[in-house]
Amino acid sequence: ASVTEMLNQLEWRSLVQRRADIRLTLLYKSFHGLVALDLSNDLIPVTRYSRHLHRLSFIIPNETKLYLQQSFIPRTVVQWNSLPASVALAPTIDTFKTGIAALIH
Fold it and tell me: Residue 89's pLDDT band (boundaries 50, 70, 90)?
């Protein structure tokens, strides 16, 4: 009986995926003013869009230290920018959570 098989049978997401979901949800809530966490100074919107970026994409901070590269903002912005536009532009938190639950990070 492996843990992976149990997770698949129960249709649970892995711990890595659940942590990513929580980080993305916190960023969504912060951006939409649903929590008292102001990230406006840390999140710089992208000014030049490509087909891989949606209109709520942010510039990924260029950190030189490994511990800073793995911190909340850089790690979450990378995942946020890779979200489909339909998920990132979700009108409600419930729609957003449903959208990220369907993704595999």
Answer: very high
